[in-house]
């Protein structure tokens, strides 16, 4: 079998790693000219830890930990008022003990697969057209004008997947807007910065945050929930060029308080600026013929869940596992059906976000902010009690919500 994967982020290379354990040939195309080193802190939760540890790459993940000590909420002067420190082995903080930058995890996966004889990476390459998708195979045309046929095409090209748009009818894909917009970028670190995820709740439904990294810089993340009268403007800017997006952020956050001035001054020089509409992707079905969607292309859960990376890794493991159980010459539809049957219930449960989220974290008035901050103070105190931390359970509770499927070809892999 020869599998074509579109996208060299997290889901695609993870799938490739597992597929080549079963002697399957893999080609990965990526629109960038190299693995992108950018991105914010991400984590692997619960069962995703168990799946990833099978790769034998876990020590490399730990070695590139962001060194974040925990999460703290700060006032406009930068004084912390609610602290949620990382407590070894316990779920007592918004920060995980396994935080890693997205670019670092992508690089680990790339380095682990790039030299395998059954893996080919093609950078600066995109799929411009799916020529056919039928019983015999799937054929595509690339942006260099060449065409090739494969047994399976995996769309792992992100939330706004161009492969998905070509193959799946728009009526079968639902985009669920959460009313929130976010932007990420990196700024120089200063001596006053600490090793905490610092979160500042501004008024007018704005949040600003700063997180450490292991490279002598700091990662900014801002969010905003614009009112109904401003929603159209924000959505239009989300589709505009970078300068227009920067101008909007400067106009909206200049009076936010705390370190707004510093963050905005570092915006123009940031090499990794990213503006995001916070939306979920929900599909009626993840596959059609010999084309299947994976990761954010199939089920982007939004950063509000903190589970995007975990779903990408688990989805890749489950898809590869189902493919590994195909008998010689068997149509891949059996594996695609199994992938969806096993994994969809967990995905749908993960995507369920309470109706008050994210609005409750974005107060408009001082009174609303006082209530939120009071609640955070109480939560921080409770989580500081040993009995509460024990009740929440271990951060490495590997079967939480989704028992890891067992596939014969993946038993006894590295790390077991």
Automatic annotation (TrEMBL):
<dbReference type="InterPro" id="IPR051704">
    <property type="entry name" value="FAD_aromatic-hydroxylase"/>
</dbReference>
<keyword id="KW-0560">Oxidoreductase</keyword>
<keyword id="KW-0285">Flavoprotein</keyword>
<keyword id="KW-0274">FAD</keyword>
<feature type="domain" description="FAD-binding">
    <location>
        <begin position="2"/>
        <end position="350"/>
    </location>
</feature>
<keyword id="KW-0732">Signal</keyword>
<dbReference type="GO" id="GO:0016491">
    <property type="term" value="F:oxidoreductase activity"/>
</dbReference>
<protein>
    <submittedName>
        <fullName>FAD/NAD(P)-binding domain-containing protein</fullName>
    </submittedName>
</protein>
<feature type="signal peptide">
    <location>
        <begin position="1"/>
        <end position="16"/>
    </location>
</feature>
<dbReference type="InterPro" id="IPR002938">
    <property type="entry name" value="FAD-bd"/>
</dbReference>
<dbReference type="GO" id="GO:0071949">
    <property type="term" value="F:FAD binding"/>
</dbReference>
<dbReference type="InterPro" id="IPR036188">
    <property type="entry name" value="FAD/NAD-bd_sf"/>
</dbReference>
<dbReference type="Pfam" id="PF01494">
    <property type="entry name" value="FAD_binding_3"/>
</dbReference>
